[in-house]
Design brief:
heterodimer; A: 395 residues; alpha/beta; 7-stranded mixed β-sheet; 16 strands; B: alpha/beta
Chain lengths: 395, 296
């Protein structure tokens, strides 16, 4: 059924269709309407689940961890300060190998207070052992939640997943979304039944102390899980396409990259604008393309490596900045292609922090800059775009 | 000899890595005797996070869910929700945390779980400091005590702040049942845990847990010291049943010095300081009697 809905409602419908059994959540702008909608689903009986109104995001994740350990499929949603408050327990969820699925409405970190789109919160959690999917549309949000459960609940993976919506741009903007039939989702996503769960009669400890002679093996196995997730993402998406007739591009969603002289790498909602810009520039005879980073964890290293020999330059757009280094996506892209024989010029553009608009004009100028830089190399590898006091060449 | 009312079956096997004379070993043992096998125990960072043994060992006959230091309240809420949604109703969910994990870092999640009326028993075993990390003061360390972060012999000296009254905090949450228990009085202990098990909703148990290395006491005297705490009314045994206070053991009213003199952590105290501690204990006891007689 096609419905017009916000990204947040797409998240709530995704969790409902996936039949989440325990939902523990705490309100934060701009995530709140996800939790409100789910509370409504549970109280009306439309969703047979337990809703735990916890007193913090840390507790939201801690409650999901306990519930998932007892064999329930869990869901939560958060944003920004809430996500970073969860940091400790995010590591707990992945270390305990629990396939929890969560939406993060990606928002700027304070201070100064800012509730708008920015990837700093999400990027700061890249080392927590979660799969991270950046979405371009509300449809992708709904579909990716359903896929994420199937990807993560495989015995070879058993890691949690974060579905990322850009604050307000997706979370509060309505689009037509195809809401699949429950029966169809049920045929795609079986009930959660982990090999191990906490239950009486089996006096095991979940999360107990291990010595140095065993700890590394636990970490190694989690690494294998993330490796397996890579293959699993691709396979599950093909199964999803077979049933629902849609796909969203695997780990790296390529748009007109095959013959592109320069490529922009970007994540999140800005990719939708960038596709239009690619079309407009191609109409003017410029061969440009877009590589949308859909999975930030596991990172599409192999996909970038196979692009490296075919293009002259990669402009990496980061909606966050790692102080003392560069944009996180940029660092990843560069490290991906370092081992390639032929390496394109790579330059980092920092833009759109704290919800600042990344307009088609700005994207066009980035492509134009990259077309020049790809020929002569970048003087400054990292450039901040559209910042007061810096050259106003971006407007 | 009268027959004991304590269940004979053991759910705590030998093999705990607790120190000799550890009060928390007894607290776990009596608690599980009262609750039985259909129990899941949630343990945050604390001595008992280490005491069941290294993975894959578990010296307890029940499953254990370890959680982050500050997360016990949230974890028991999540665990109970999952059991409910799966239709498993006859399992007792327990949060088993130390005093630091309860009155300090875990207070927020504890308050949340109590306010949500989570159907679980929260047991705080109170050894009156961060003992797993090596005797640092907590909000539950009593006035006058030495710890490594309240060192005697500096300008500040021993701990100059009172112990947080966690029972009053829990009473303010209007939970159906709260009780203090002592390993020196196992029958009273077991009876209260059994009552908590029968009661629906959020239950809180405050267990005094003597700690030989932290209190600088002879390991063979732990039960005796726990008894002195009750008899000197430092740690009165009472319950708060649907808001009504009921003292379950009046104690002998021994002078506090009898309790203090056997513990190294109080050896620096002067006579006037001991007198002021006696006054705190006397005032608290009178308050408790008043609460009991007024039915609040």
């Amino acid at each position: 059924m096609r419905m017009v809905m916000t990204g947040n409602y797409a998240s709530a419908y995704g969790a409902k269709l996936a039949r989440a059994e325990v939902i523990a959540a705490y309100p934060i702008t701009p995530q709140t309407s996800i939790v409100e909608k789910l509370a409504e689903f549970v109280s009306s009986g439309e969703l047979k689940a337990k809703f735990i109104p916890v007193e913090s995001e840390h507790s939201a994740m801690a409650a999901c961890i306990a519930a998932q350990t007892a064999g329930a499929r869990t869901y939560t949603a958060t944003s920004s300060q809430g996500l970073t408050l969860m940091h400790e327990v995010l590591m707990w969820a992945s270390g305990a190998r629990l396939p929890i699925v969560m939406t993060n409405v990606s928002r700027a970190m304070a201070p100064p207070w800012n509730v708008w789109a920015d990837h700093m919160d999400t990027v700061a959690q890249r080392d927590t052992g979660w799969l991270q999917f950046f979405c371009r549309s509300n449809q992708e949000v709904l579909d990716t939640i359903i896929m994420a459960y199937k990807i993560c609940e495989t015995s070879g993976v058993m890691l949690p997943a974060m579905i990322v919506e850009d604050a307000f741009i997706l979370s509060h903007t309505s689009e037509p979304v195809d809401v699949p039939e429950q029966a169809l989702v049920d045929s795609f996503l079986p009930a959660y039944s982990p090999e191990l769960k906490i239950e009486v009669g089996k006096p095991m400890g979940f999360g107990s102390l291990v010595k140095p002679d065993q700890y590394m093996e636990f970490r190694y196995k989690a690494m294998l899980g993330m490796k397996e997730a890579r293959e699993r993402i691709l396979r599950v998406e093909q199964e999803f396409k077979h049933i629902f007739g849609r796909e969203h591009g695997g780990l790296l969603d390529l748009y007109k990259c095959a013959d592109a002289d320069v490529i922009m790498a970007a994540a999140g909602s800005v990719a939708a604008t960038a596709m239009d810009v690619v079309d407009a520039m191609r109409a003017k005879g410029m061969r440009v393309g877009l590589a949308r980073i859909r999975a930030f964890r596991p990172f599409p290293h192999e996909e970038f490596r196979s692009l490296a020999g075919k293009t002259e330059g990669i402009a990496v757009l980061d909606r966050s900045f790692t102080f003392g280094a560069a944009g996180a996506m940029f660092t990843e892209v560069k490290s991906s292609i370092y081992s390639c024989q032929k390496r394109p010029v790579v330059k980092n553009y920092i833009a759109g922090l704290g919800g600042r608009d990344i307009t088609p004009k700005i994207l066009e100028k980035i492509f134009e800059d990259m077309l020049v830089v790809s020929k002569r190399g970048a003087e400054d590898e990292v450039e901040w775009v559209d910042v007061a006091g810096l050259p106003r060449r971006w407007r | 000899m009268t027959k004991t009312t304590i269940p004979v079956e053991e759910f705590a096997y030998p093999g705990s890595t607790g120190c000799p004379g550890c009060g928390a070993n007894l607290v776990m043992r009596y608690m599980l005797k009262a609750l039985g096998e259909r129990t899941i125990v949630t343990i945050p960072a604390c001595c008992w996070a280490v005491m069941p043994g290294y993975w894959p060992s578990n010296c307890l006959k029940v499953p254990l869910l370890y959680c982050a230091f500050e997360a016990t309240g949230a974890a028991i809420s999540g665990l109970r929700a999952a059991l409910d949604v799966k239709g498993v109703e006859d399992v007792t969910v327990v949060g088993f945390a130390g005093d630091g994990g309860t009155v300090d870092i875990g207070l927020q999640a504890l308050s949340g779980a109590a306010e949500r009326r989570t159907d679980a028993i929260y047991v705080m075993y109170d050894n009156e400091a961060y003992m797993n990390t090596g005797i640092q003061r907590s909000g539950s360390t009593p006035w006058g005590a030495w710890t490594t972060t309240t060192p005697v012999g500096t300008s500040h000296g021993f701990k100059h702040e009172s112990k947080k009254d966690i029972m009053a905090i829990m009473q303010a949450h209007k939970i159906p049942y709260a009780a203090t228990v002592s390993p020196a009085f196992p029958e009273d202990f077991v009876k209260k845990i059994e009552k908590a098990k029968r009661t629906k909703g959020f239950k809180f148990i405050h267990a005094l847990s003597p700690c030989p290395p932290g209190w600088k006491t002879n390991p063979s005297l732990s039960v005796e010291i726990a008894r002195l705490a009750v008899d000197a009314r430092v740690f009165p045994l009472y319950e708060i049943d649907e808001g009504k206070v009921h003292i379950t053991r009046k104690g002998k009213g021994l002078p506090i010095v009898d309790y203090l003199k056997v513990q190294g952590r109080f050896q620096h105290l002067t006579e006037p300081e001991i007198s002021s501690m006696q006054k705190i204990v006397d005032d608290n006891w009178i308050m408790l009697l008043l609460k009991e007689s007024s039915g609040t």
